[in-house]
Amino acid sequence: MIKIGPLELPDFPLLLAPMEDVSDPPFRHVCKQQGADMLYTEFISSEGLIRDAVKSRKKLDIFENERPVGVQLFGSDIESMREAALIAEEVNPNLIDINYGCPVKKVACRGAGAALLQDIPKMVQMTSEIVKAVKLPVTVKTRLGWDDNTKNIMEVAERLQDIGIQALTIHARTRKQLYKGPADWTLVGEIKNNPRIHIPIFGNGDVTSPEIAVQMRERYNVDGVMLGRAAIGYPWIFREIKHYLKTGELLAPPTLQERIDVCKTHLQKSIEWKGDILGILEMRRHYANYFKGMPNFKDFRMKLVTTDHYSEILETLEVIGRIYDEVA
């Protein structure tokens, strides 16, 4: 069993990464159904929260059937981050997670996310203020460093643990790499095996199959893995990893009908949460991923992403099921 403060997770938990415009309640719901052990909100701007911005506040929506769930915050101002953490605490998540890893320009160039890897004293002070302000466990997600010349994650891990974080997730790339090139888990393993480190260490980056997840556990001794892009349109990755961990055998991929059923559930939850118009609109980014690899799918995808009516989308999904089942 893995403990994050009072929160108890199973051995080698599978975490769903906080992804902008992806990790919303509908997506979290289907990932939870398929075996994700810990969920996170999309990352939320501290400035947006303290200004009461509608979009930022909406991202605080969490539901009982998602638990355990963490709220992830990002920002560059220490006082704003402290205030935002107090606001987030009011919705009673299981923990508060701080984003020191986002590499995108609109975040990092404003001094937030991975930019804090260039100012470790400020990172430590910000984290300390949040730990002192809230009663919930505080965790951190970050990267190896800003670039290959400043891989300071060992210092970061020790100093953040010393001021009270309860777990650390490390994306095994630098900020300069963005999401390109292979993830290097070597330092992640060194941190996990550092005798000074006693909090859970989770690894993130390039976990795209059950075999890789097990390899990361065996080679680097991490306490669990966080999955991001591999779960988009493929929430079955969680059940496949769990089955492989338990039996050493690979599960068969989801059937076409399973893909359709989960896609429908995702759509229904999207409409329930966002309303008919926005729910249908924001679901469009997911269809290509749910049916990735299916031959001659372009016309169906175009229909799915241009239809504004729920009943027509369901009808298209039914047609997809019939046609591809006949082909098979």
Summarize this structure as a short list of keywords or feature phrases.
45% helix, 328 residues, alpha/beta, 2 domains, TIM Barrel, two-stranded antiparallel sheet, Non-ribosomal Peptide Synthetase Peptidyl Carrier Protein, Chain A, 15 helices, 9-stranded parallel β-sheet
Structural notes for this entry:
The protein has helices at 25-33, 46-50, 54-58, 78-89, 105-108, 120-133, 153-162, 186-192, 210-220, 236-247, 256-274, 276-283, 287-290, 298-306, 310-327, and strands at 2-4, 7-9, 14-16, 39-40, 44-45, 69-74, 95-100, 138-143, 168-171, 201-204, 224-227. By secondary structure, the chain is α/β, with parallel strands linked by helices. It has two domains: 2-247, TIM Barrel; 256-327, Non-ribosomal Peptide Synthetase Peptidyl Carrier Protein, Chain A (Orthogonal Bundle). Strands 3, 4, 5, 6, 7, 8, 9, 10 and 11 form a nine-stranded parallel β-sheet that branches. A two-stranded antiparallel ribbon has the order 1-2. α8 (186-192) links the parallel β9 and β10. α1 (25-33) runs antiparallel to α11 (256-274), α11 (256-274) crosses α12 (276-283) and α11 runs antiparallel to α15 (310-327). It is globular and about 60 Å long.
Provide the CATH superfamily of the largest domain: Aldolase class I
The parts where pLDDT drops under 50 for at least 5 residues are: none
Strand content: 5-15%
CATH class of the largest domain: Alpha Beta
Looking at the overall shape, the CATH architecture of the largest domain is Alpha-Beta Barrel
Query: Would you count the extended β strands for me?
Result: 11
Distance between the termini: 43 Å
User: What is the helix content?
Assistant: 40-55%
